[in-house]
Amino acid sequence: MPDETSALLDEYGWAEREQVGPAEYADRYLRPAGRETAVSPIERFVYADRTTPAA
Q1: Which pLDDT tens digits describe the chain residue by residue (55 residues)?
Q2: How far is residue 29 from each of residues 35, 39, 46, measured CA to CA in Å?
Q3: 13 Cβ neighbours under 8 A, 6+ residues apart
Q4: Exposure of 21 by Cβ count < 10 A (0-12 exposed, 13-18 middle, 19+ buried)?
Q5: From CA 37, how far away is CA 27, in angstroms rounded?
Q6: For the chain, how are helix, strand and coil distributed in percent, rounded to 5?
Q7: pLDDT at 1
Q8: Which residues contact 32 (CB under 8 A, 6 or more apart)?
């Protein structure tokens, strides 16, 4: 679930910085690149930073 993403990432040493759903993802990234690919309603884009050193 999108509202659980931040907690899940935190468990693995990552911090969520931004999350967008399918419509915003298509508007911001696909269409400007000239792609009209359909995006599934369950697709999400999450930008995260590593908060702890990798093992």
Answers
A1: 889 999 999 999 999 999 999 999 999 989 999 998 889 999 999 999 999 887 6
A2: 9, 11, 13
A3: 50, 51, 52, 53, 54
A4: middle
A5: 11
A6: 40, 25, 35
A7: 87
A8: none
